[in-house]
Amino acid sequence: MTSDSQKRVAVVTGASAGIGEATAKTLAAQGFHVVAVARRAERVTAVADEIGGTAVVADVTDESAVDALARQLHRVDVLVNNAGGAKGLEPVAEADVEHWRWMWETNVLGTLRVTRALLPKLIASGDGLIVTVTSIAAFEIYDGGSGYTAAKHAQSALHRTLRGELLGKPVRLTEIAPGMVHTEFSLVRFDGDRQRADAVYAGMTPLTATDIAEVIGFVATRPPHVNVDQIVIRPRDQATATRRVTRPAGR
Ligand SMILES: NC(=O)c1ccc[n+]([C@@H]2O[C@H](COP(=O)([O-])OP(=O)(O)OC[C@H]3O[C@@H](n4cnc5c(N)ncnc54)[C@H](OP(=O)(O)O)[C@@H]3O)[C@@H](O)[C@H]2O)c1
């Protein structure tokens, strides 16, 4: 890997778009050598090139790709488990098992695979940090959201379990739980239906990917004895997963 060996290394999964892309840029500006991981080669390479980082084209649901990622990294100081998302909004009675499988594979098993593969290097760094981007869906539920909320609850449980299991080891753990952030999230959830995706954010001001990245940047620059356990970030216009402001158009 062509990284400046003096620099601390931050691995960001899902760095080709949204929160991951913004986080990669923020961490690079703070002096980290960023390893940007995602499936879309062109996009993740463009992000890495822009920040002088390294692009790794990998699917977090593919064990051999994750193992290959771990093998090519000599050093890992920070891991941001960000790759993830939602598919569909069907009620349980009409649940699409393939949607569930995608959400569990990506959010839960993806986080498990990448974390397990990079953990020895995070420990060896002497001051490792694991940031996992869950969601308010990790502690709330809503109609039609069972597949996503179940996956995010599980991802959060995995992350919080590690906090206890790693006690005494030089690794910090932070869970970031955002509310509505305007990214490609809804476009992915609704299978490319732009109108339906845009309607999610109509009449309110959602968070931006940069809003979340700045908070992750804050966490990554605390001194080694400070563990920020959990941060919930919502737009002012959103109180819960289902309660939010809806202003008439143009106001
Ligand atoms: N937006 C929100 O309102 C919101 C709220 C709370 C939590 N979150 C969480 O925040 C995280 C980031 O979402 P986002 O809003 O930034 O969505 P996004 O714009 O759709 O970005 C998702 C990123 O994950 C990557 N990804 C998806 N599946 C992957 C896989 N199997 N392997 C590797 N990378 C994969 C995508 O890249 P490729 O397609 O190139 O692989 C993309 O870079 C997710 O975990 C999401 O659940 C989002």
Write a structural description.
- With 251 residues, the chain is α/β, with parallel strands linked by helices.
- The protein has one domain: NAD(P)-binding Rossmann-like Domain (Rossmann fold), CATH 3.40.50.
- It contains 8 helices and 7 strands; from the N terminus they run βαβαβαβαβαβαααβ.
- The protein has a 7-stranded parallel beta sheet, sandwiched between helices.
- Helix 1 runs parallel beside helix 2, helix 1 packs across helix 8 and helix 3 runs parallel beside helix 4.
- The model has no long low-confidence stretch (mean pLDDT 97).
Topology (elements, then pairings):
Elements: E1 9-13, H1 18-29, E2 33-38, H2 41-51, E3 54-57, H3 63-72, E4 78-81, H4 97-124, E5 128-133, H5 146-165, E6 171-178, H6 185-189, H7 194-200, H8 209-220, E7 230-233
Helix pairs in contact: 1-2, 1-8, 3-4, 4-5
NADP nicotinamide-adenine-dinucleotide phosphate binds next to helix 1, helix 4 and helix 6.
Organism: Mycobacterium botniense
Protein name: Putative oxidoreductase
Pfam families: adh_short
Summarize the structure.
With 251 residues, the protein is α/β, with parallel strands linked by helices. It is built from 8 helices and 7 strands; from the N terminus they run βαβαβαβαβαβαααβ. The N and C termini lie far apart (50 Å).
Structural features:
8 helices, oxidoreductase, NAD(P)-bd_dom_sf, Putative oxidoreductase, seven-stranded parallel β-sheet, alpha/beta, binds NADP nicotinamide-adenine-dinucleotide phosphate, 251 residues
